[in-house]
């Protein structure tokens, strides 16, 4: 029984870790290949593209978190939400320049990661 509980916990931790990794790596790729500094002002078109791109990968990160954790509730997605929003808030207070990317992460991308998990939970119940 203890081994089963440990396995479940490890799977949940792994799910959150991989979900967050998907979010971070996708963000790094976006800014690296676009050659846009995330802490400086960007064009409105790029901000819209970042919004769409971030929503897609936030949703995927939440879905993958659920897929790996295999839970029937959203607790792991709430943990992912706190991690995404927490690191973005830390960055918001520590970095200079424009903060549009951190605000998107806190108010849009973190909540959408929960929706990705909700989608998977609802889909799994069918």
Describe the structure.
The protein has 126 residues and is mostly helical. The chain contains four helices and no strands. α1 (2-34) runs antiparallel to α2 (44-69), α2 (44-69) packs parallel to α4 and α3 (75-94) packs antiparallel against α4. It is elongated and about 55 Å long. The mean pLDDT is 96.
Strand percentage: under 5%
Mean of pLDDT: 96
Question: Could you give the distance between the termini?
Answer: 29 Å
Helix content percent band: over 70%
The SSE string, one letter per element, is HHHH
Strand tally is 0
Shape: elongated
Rg for CA atoms: 16 Å
Largest sheet, in brief, is: none
Summarize the structure.
With 126 residues, this protein is mostly helical.
Present the secondary structure layout:
Blueprint: H1 2-34, H2 44-69, H3 75-94, H4 100-125
Highlighted features:
mainly alpha; elongated; 126 residues
